[in-house]
């Protein structure tokens, strides 16, 4: 007998899909679908908070950057400088925390009774265990800042809920699953990544998903590089390899004169994505240290916003090491479904 | 200047052009419309959520119901986020969705193997009485121990492909699409997988 038929005939029973879980998955899809980060801690909201007066609405669309510049550096030049940049290096032990302070802006999409979009902004500090073993892997302190307008969409009331009220959130992996090694981005995993450009490049490309080929694989490699740099500490050897590897990704180019979420000016290095945006890592012009990230619309039809508008903007402000993270009361895995 | 790229995961670059509107049909049309009107995407969920959940639930086992719920939810969230990149010349979105589900199931790889081995141990003749009792309890719904032993012997990639064909009823072509591997690799990997399973089942009988 064919082994495939054997297993087909002996298929184990499937558990029924709980209607509550199903409905919640469907509505999560509707409400949080397009949020950028994967981890639950970015989930904003928290109902019941005092809604600020709507007079605060920022009607100015996200600013359009100017491109032309005098002396242009190529992407590989910028990345080469970044690879060689001297920085204050850290050496966290596995039981310590990497602490990163940042400011972020990402799109929020809500599709309840009425579709709403806005750009939510946060000021945040994250404590991530250098070695993320077990369920609890860190703590996030997050404060929502005034939202911005998603071009063409009035800012809804709910965008103001929780603004100005810092929250402390325990970060935990509650599903018991393990992230495959090639997708980990905790310090213990990062410090074991290849310290040569070739090896790092292979690592970046190993992150791509099924179905992705050609330019999609290139975009995934760039995304993986960004994931490794976001709210992390990458040791000097791996950082050098990483920047050198990014320089070999086809399509990576420079955006002159951009600003990070904190208003610091820098040089962007990135590529256009099939989501209709151009995504950049931002580097300081003098020190070539990483400042943050940005995502700007280049294809209005695909992105659903005018070309030139900014849909994501971050600034990484400070990276340090700490022995402890703030205490958060309660079991982070308690709230379920 | 391009560095080494994992062989099995690359496919020849296919033209990235988007087909004319007239050719976009089926799920592809729903996905295309969801770009302008995100709510349309729920249509895809309604169509396939139960099927994907069944597959995930079989893979993760009856004791991981909430993990199966999470993986299903995340599969559709990932699909929603990546919908702009969907190859709209393909009217059937199932392979795409299964590919994403497979990726998420892979995060539970260690647990899956542990579970399969535990099930497989129930087939051993000198299993103690507790395990014998478990056999009876477990066998009604779960995978038979011998078959679990066969699956436990496979690599993650082999198991993924084999079960997409056997349990999700994907054709070779759809499995190739789901996992982003060439047809030749699908055929050779499956025949290697079947041989492995045959060997394990032979040993045990």
From TrEMBL, chain A:
Location of region: Disordered: 1-24
InterPro entries: CU044_5270-like
Transmembrane annotation, as ranges: 41-59
Ranges of biased composition (kind: Basic and acidic residues): 1-13
Keyword tags: Membrane, Transmembrane, Transmembrane helix
Protein name (record): CU044_5270 family protein
Species this chain originates from: Nonomuraea soli
Lineage: Bacteria, Bacillati, Actinomycetota, Actinomycetes, Streptosporangiales
UniProtKB/TrEMBL annotation, chain B:
UniProt superkingdom: Bacteria
UniProt keyword Transcription present: yes
All residue ranges annotated as the RNA polymerase sigma factor 70 region 4 type domain in the record: 149-197
Biological processes, Gene Ontology terms: DNA-templated transcription initiation
Pfam family, one: Sigma70_r2
Record-linked InterPro entries: RNA_pol_sigma-70-like, RNA_pol_sigma-70_dom, RNA_pol_sigma70_r2, RNA_pol_sigma70_r4_t2, RNA_pol_sigma_r2, RNA_pol_sigma_r3/r4-like, WH-like_DNA-bd_sf
Domain RNA polymerase sigma-70 region: start-end pairs: 44-114
Keywords: Sigma factor, Transcription, Transcription regulation
GO MF annotations, alphabetized: DNA binding; sigma factor activity
UniProt-listed SUPFAM superfamilies: Sigma2 domain of RNA polymerase sigma factors, Sigma3 and sigma4 domains of RNA polymerase sigma factors
Keyword Transcription regulation: yes
Family: Belongs to the sigma-70 factor family. ECF subfamily.
Protein name (record): RNA polymerase sigma-70 factor (ECF subfamily)
């Amino acid at each position: 007998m064919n082994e495939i038929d054997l297993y087909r005939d002996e298929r184990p029973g499937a558990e029924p899909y709980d209607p509550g879980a199903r409905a919640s998955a469907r509505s999560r899809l509707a409400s949080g679908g397009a949020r950028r980060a994967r981890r639950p801690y970015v989930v904003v909201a928290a109902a019941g908070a005092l809604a600020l007066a709507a007079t605060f609405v920022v009607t100015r669309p996200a600013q359009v950057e100017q491109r032309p510049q005098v002396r242009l550096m190529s992407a590989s030049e910028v990345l080469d400088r970044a690879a060689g940049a001297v920085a204050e290096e850290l050496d966290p032990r596995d039981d310590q925390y990497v602490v990163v302070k940042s400011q972020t802006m990402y799109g929020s999409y809500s599709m309840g009774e009425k579709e709403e979009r806005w750009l939510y902004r946060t000021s945040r500090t994250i404590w991530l265990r250098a070695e993320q073993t077990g369920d609890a892997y860190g703590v996030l302190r997050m404060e929502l800042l005034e939202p911005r307008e998603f071009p063409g969409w009035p800012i809804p009331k709910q965008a103001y809920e929780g603004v100005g009220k810092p929250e402390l959130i325990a970060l935990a992996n509650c599903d018991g699953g393990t992230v495959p090694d090639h997708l980990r981005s905790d310090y213990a995993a990062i410090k074991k990544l290849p310290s040569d450009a070739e090896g790092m490049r292979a690592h970046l490309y190993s992150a791509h998903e099924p179905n992705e080929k050609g330019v999609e694989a290139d975009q995934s490699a760039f995304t993986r590089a960004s994931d490794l740099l976001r709210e992390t500490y990458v040791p000097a050897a791996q950082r050098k390899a990483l920047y050198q590897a990014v320089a070999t990704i086809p399509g990576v180019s420079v955006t002159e004169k951009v600003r990070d979420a904190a208003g610091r000016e820098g040089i962007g290095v990135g590529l256009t994505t099939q989501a209709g945006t151009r995504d950049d890592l931002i580097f300081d012009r003098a020190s070539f240290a990483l400042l943050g990230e940005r995502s700007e619309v280049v294809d209005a039809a695909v992105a659903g916003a005018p070309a030139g508008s900014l849909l994501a903007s971050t600034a990484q402000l400070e990276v340090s090491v700490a022995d402890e993270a703030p205490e958060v009361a309660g079991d982070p895995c308690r709230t379920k479904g | 200047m391009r560095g080494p790229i994992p062989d099995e995961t690359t496919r020849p670059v296919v033209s990235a052009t988007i087909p004319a509107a007239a050719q976009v049909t089926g799920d592809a049309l729903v996905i295309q419309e969801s770009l302008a009107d995100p709510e349309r995407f729920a249509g895809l969920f309604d169509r396939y959520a139960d099927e994907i959940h069944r597959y995930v639930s079989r893979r993760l086992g009856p004791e991981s119901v909430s993990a199966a719920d999470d993986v299903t939810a995340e599969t559709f969230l990932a699909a929603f986020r990546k919908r702009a990149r969907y190859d709209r010349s393909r009217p059937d979105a199932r392979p795409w969705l299964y590919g994403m589900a497979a990726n998420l199931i892979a995060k539970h790889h260690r647990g899956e193997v542990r579970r399969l081995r535990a099930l497989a141990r129930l087939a051993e003749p000198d299993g103690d009485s507790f395990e014998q009792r478990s056999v009876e309890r477990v066998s009604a719904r779960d995978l038979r121990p011998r078959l679990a032993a066969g699956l436990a012997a496979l690599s993650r990639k082999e198991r993924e492909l084999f079960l997409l064909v056997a349990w999700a009823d994907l054709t070779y072509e759809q499995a190739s699409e789901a996992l982003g591997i060439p047809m030749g690799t699908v055929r050779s990997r499956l025949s290697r997988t079947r041989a492995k399973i045959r060997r394990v089942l032979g040993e045990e009988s």
